[in-house]
Amino acid sequence: MNSLVSVRSITHQVVTRVAILWNEPRSEVYARIYNRLHCFYGIDLTQYPRSKGESLLAVAERLDVIDKVYQLAEAESLYLPLTEN
């Protein structure tokens, strides 16, 4: 059995963690990331055709820019508020 985890899966985990810690919907985190992807790299994922039910994250993977989305998600996690113990 292959135990490799995809960049797409790891990206989704990072976005989920950010959403939980910021107490906001994942969709808002993804929207910020996709906006930055467009601003920094000129890649607007919404302009590409999608299959029914295909997410923008899947489009990023198909276009081979998932690494950029992951990097932006990790950057989002750097801005997380510190939590008290």
Helix-strand string: HHHH
The largest pleated sheet is described as:
none
Over the alpha carbons, how many angstroms does the gyration radius reach? 14 Å
* Category from helices, strands and their pairing: mainly alpha
Q: How many distinct folded domains?
A: 1
Proportion in β-strands = under 5%
* Spans where pLDDT lies below 50 across 5 or more residues: none
Which term fits the overall shape? globular
Give the helix proportion (percent range).
Answer: 55-70%
N/C terminus separation: 39 Å
Mean pLDDT: 89
Key attributes of the depicted protein:
85 residues, globular, single chain, mainly alpha
Quick overview of this protein structure:
By secondary structure, the chain is an all-alpha fold. The chain has helices spanning 7-22, 26-41, 56-62, 66-78.
Report on this model:
The protein has helices at residues 7-22, 26-41, 56-62, 66-78. It is mainly α and 85 residues long. The chain has one domain. Helix 1 packs parallel to helix 4. The longest helix has 16 residues, at 7-22. The mean pLDDT is 89.
Helix-strand layout with pairing:
Elements: H1 7-22, H2 26-41, H3 56-62, H4 66-78
Helix pairs in contact: 1-2, 1-4, 2-4
